[in-house]
Amino acid sequence: MTRTRFSRKTLAAAVAGTSVWALTSCGLIPGGGEDETITMVVTENAPFQEPTEIAKELLEDDGWTLETTYVTDIIQPNFSVDNGEYDVNFFQNLTYLWQFNQDHDLDLEPLFFMFEQPSGIYSREYDSVADLPHSAQIALPVDTANNGRGIRLLARAGAIEVDESKSTPELSVDDITENPKELEFVEVDQQSVGTVYDDVDAVFGFARLLAEVDVMPEEALIIETQDEALPFAMTIVAQPGFKEDEPEKYEALKSAYHSEEVRHWYGDYLGGLLTPAFDRDIDAAWEEANQ
Hints:
By secondary structure, this protein is α/β, with parallel strands linked by helices. The chain has helices at 9-16, 46-61, 76-82, 94-104, 144-156, 193-196, 207-211, 226-229, 242-245, 247-257, 260-268, 282-289; strands at residues 2-3, 23-26, 37-43, 65-71, 88-93, 109-113, 115-116, 119-122, 137-141, 161-162, 176-178, 184-188, 202-206, 222-223, 234-238, 275-276.
């Protein structure tokens, strides 16, 4: 197997984007007592940003101030919550959080699920995984948790064989045991798969990111089942004990984010592509992830 670095301009820009900690403040509301203010760092794209703006208004109606900072980074938001700079963040899925905790010796906890999204292998040129040519270039997210999802799907499709003793979040290209077509793997920022879609033979990507470049889930060569996707549902995350130590903040956040207004927004976005996961048991899922 071969891991290469794609040299074309769009891919170079995508890889460079992994280190960006671009902050844009949004909606900071001065005033309010310490107990009535919740600080949050949020990823800067629609499925996170728009529900947050809805939640902000609902919280304000109930006497709360939600101070938000929008970012394009997938590393610093966890450190910013861990060091107490922010109360919570909203950018990651459950498995990414678990892996981040392992990699950085943190103990951040998910508060509640927000939404699920199908993810799959997509190709501009080919109609099936079997059609991928010898030495095809496959773009995978650089972060460990999502990298393994693409590898697992390629294995399920029969393109490669992997070490079956490894769980999906643990899989990497180093765990590929058979690669008959000598597929080459290109690692990019998870948010950038849409920008490299035209420049590689196939990508593993989140359905919403491909939909933003007019590539819909029905065009996927192979897509995750609901059971495969559940551990990767998006969550809101805080320091350990937040739910118990700040019960009023927790309940206010959950009520606003799990509101009918937010549910309705997801129903309208990209034709209902993202499924609210409000009723999913976060405690059971987190316990299973940590086993």
